[in-house]
Amino acid sequence: MIGGVELATVWELGLRHLYLAGVPLLIGLLVSLPLGWLAVRWRWLGPTVVAGTSLLYTIPSLALFILLPLVLGTRILDDANVLVAMTVYTVALLTRTVADGLGSVPGPVRQAATAMGYGELRRLVAVDLPLAVPVVAAGLRVAAVSNVSIVSIASLVGVSQLGQLFTDGFNRNAMGPIVVGVAACVVLALMLDALIALLARLVTPWLRRGVPA
Q1: How far apart are the first and last CA of the chain?
Q2: For residue 78, which of 35, 101, 211, 213 sits 20 to 30 Å off, Cα-Cα?
Q3: What is the CA angle 101-111-121, rounded to 5?
Q4: What pLDDT score does 95 carry?
Q5: Which of 199, 159, 198 is nearest to 75 (CA)?
């Protein structure tokens, strides 16, 4: 037991928190990739796509957690509400990052790939996206930390995760659970950040060798 909280409880809530923060991170990345590509492919559409998705981040999280059940037809305690809300916030953060990453690929590199017979889709997968990994990974790390933070607010609508320790500590006027909850969220955020950094390093071996992209 630590801070008046069973370690098994912290572990269980931590896994729930990881699920609610991590799954939307992956889904949001998959949604953001085509949106970011559209913003770069058609320059006239770029400002609208980037600004439109960025505005999603201004929606208050608590309000979104409460309104989504009305839109999705789910119960307010369903995980689906949190997963959808966090996916929305992830897309809001990552679309601009993906567009910036793809836009940072040097023109001569694109032209060389085209001259070698790469079609647009093949060039995107084999050339543009790999070179954009450092920029996209940086945005993904920010989104991961943000997700871990925002998910905790879902405890106010009864969704079980580490934020439950905050509400429990507040209701009992006990600092122990609150401190444990904060520490667990920090550790989880650092773990996700380190994992993304490691994966980005693994898929960009040319940077480890000091070869410029």
Answers
A1: 49
A2: 35
A3: 60
A4: 93
A5: 159
Mean pLDDT by 10 residues, the chain (213 residues): 77 94 95 91 83 89 88 82 94 93 82 78 80 92 95 89 89 87 94 94 75 49
CATH number at residue 74: 1.10.3720.10
Residue 1, domain member (yes or no): no
> Is residue 70 in a domain?
yes
2 - beta bridge partners?
A: 5
The pLDDT value recorded for residue 213 is 47
Question: Per residue, what are the HEC states of the chain?
Answer: CECCECHHHHHHHHHHHHHHHHHHHHHHHHHHHHHHHHHHHCCCCHHHHHHHHHHHHHCCHHHHHHHHHHHHCCCCCCHHHHHHHHHHHHHHHHHHHHHHHHHCCCHHHHHHHHHCCCCHHHHHHHHHHHHHHHHHHHHHHHHHHHHHHHHHHHHHHCCCCCHHHHHHHHHHCCHHHHHHHHHHHHHHHHHHHHHHHHHHHHCCHHHHCCCCC
Q: How many domains does the chain have?
A: 1
Residue 211 lies in a domain: no
Residue 110: CB partners within 8 Å, gap ≥ 6? 123, 127, 128
d(CA 138, CA 204): 13
How confident is the model at residue 120, as a pLDDT? 74
